[in-house]
Amino acid sequence: MNTTDGDLEHVVIVGAGVAGCHAARDLAADHDVTVLDRTGVAAEATGLSAGIVAPTLFYSDIPGVARHANAFFREFDGTHGFGFTERNRIDVMTDDELADARALTERLGDEGFPVSFLGSNEVTDRYSEFDFEGFAGAVLYEDTGWVDPYTYATALQSAAEARGAEFHLDSEVTDIDVENGTVVGVETDAGRVDADAVVIAAGWRTRDLLPDGVDVPIRPYRTQVVVLEPDEPLSERFPLGRIKSEHLYFRPEHNGDLLIGGGHHPVETPATASSDADESFRLEVADFVPGFIDGFGDAGFVNGWAGIDAASPDTRPIVDAPENAPAGLLVVTGFNGLGIMTSPVVGPTVRQRLTGTDAGFPTEPFAADRFERVDTSFEYVSTSEI
Ligand SMILES: Cc1cc2nc3c(=O)[nH]c(=O)nc-3n(C[C@H](O)[C@H](O)[C@H](O)COP(=O)(O)OP(=O)(O)OC[C@H]3O[C@@H](n4cnc5c(N)ncnc54)[C@H](O)[C@@H]3O)c2cc1C
């Protein structure tokens, strides 16, 4: 891993998605920070996100990361216009998944997380809207919730600006300038910007900006969402959830509609960052939901969209200097559809890589050298498998 020394003054961050905005907020405390984006804040994957926050599940093997992420959303709540909505989550299990679910529940309980297992009758006693026929029960998480992803990113931007960061939101970075093995700036369509360090947080486009001989194992994949309006608005205690066997997840909207996500698959070279949800995904949702949740017999289709995120071989982001990178170059990418809930690790990990300060949680899971080699044709693993 590369780290730069105390000469670090001006850091350029490429990309104003949630990763770039979080890095900017933390670095701006004691550095000059400039964020450059080709379009705008939250213009790509971030703004298209469902905003679900469930790090206890997705980082169950690294409790320090889950604790840090859970705490960040609560601490940031109520600042810079940001709001975190707390809501329980049920992860629905089939008979085949039962043993693993019980083991996970026990492990997380031992770590002090508010997680328990409910049999199918206990689930429907608590949430009578669901039909659990064919399911064995659910893991109940009582530390989950969601954010509006656009508001979250702009709140991080506002926090960064309050610390002196500058955002230039119509600046496409075309090249990274390197002299004598060290980053010295970036080229943009509006001219050159000097820098002592450059953090590339350009989502699935990150590889396009890497100098020759430097690469990271990420590949773009597409993921989809539809929003349905039920016969009656969902109650204010309707949970978030996931049906792992169906590769679908859901969360209520504040107005009582239901957002359902899924339909993930890798794509080779995306033409655009977003598009409509596929008809086949809409039909899959229309086929499943009315039999699983009451009140969707005459549901209306409100909206549907698809976005592109970056996948990595082990579903965890890369927040590090890649092998052979010039001094002062970091990448932050590969969030695998979990970039909102994982974003709290970005700032501290970037700071640790650049300045050596302790992040306060394990950062090895985000190291570039955890992969033996850079293979960009790896088999895509969906986080719906976790
Ligand atoms: C439909 C959908 C649902 C999702 N649901 C969830 C969820 O419920 N919970 C969760 O945690 N995560 C979710 N995610 C994943 C999450 O949104 C992403 O992991 C996260 O937003 C990635 O953030 P990022 O900053 O890495 O990338 P992005 O948000 O894609 O930001 C990259 C930025 O870089 C800019 N850029 C690219 N190239 C250049 C360049 N050359 N010069 C300047 N700027 C450049 C782009 O304009 C863009 O603004 C979802 C994603 C999608 C698509």
CATH-level-4 superfamily name of the largest domain: FAD/NAD(P)-binding domain
Instruction: Report how far the terminal alpha carbons are from each other.
Output: 28 Å
Q: Compute the number of structural domains.
A: 3
Give the class from helix and strand content and strand pairing: alpha+beta
**Any idea what the radius of gyration is?**
21 Å
Shape: globular
List unreliable stretches of 5+ residues. 1-5
Number of strands: 21
Task: Describe the fold and architecture.
The structure is a single chain. The chain has 386 residues and is α+β, with helices and mostly antiparallel strands. It has 3 domains: 10-48 and 150-216 and 313-385, FAD/NAD(P)-binding domain; 88-143, no CATH class; 219-311, D-Amino Acid Oxidase, subunit A, domain 2 (D-Amino Acid Oxidase, Chain A, domain 2, 2-Layer Sandwich), CATH 3.30.9.10. The chain contains 10 helices and 21 strands. The strands form 4 sheets. It has a 9-stranded mixed sheet with strand order 6-7-5-15-16-17-14-19-18, with helices on both faces. Strands 9-2-1-13-21-20 form a 6-stranded mixed sheet. Strand 1, helix 1 (18-27) and strand 2 form a beta-alpha-beta unit. Helix 1 (18-27) packs across helix 10 (346-355). It is globular. Mean pLDDT is 96; it is low at 1-5. The structure holds flavin-adenine dinucleotide. Flavin-adenine dinucleotide is lined by residues 14-20, 36-39, 43-46, 48-52, 172-173, 201-203, 205, 209, 223, 225, 261, 307, 309, 333, 335, 337-341.
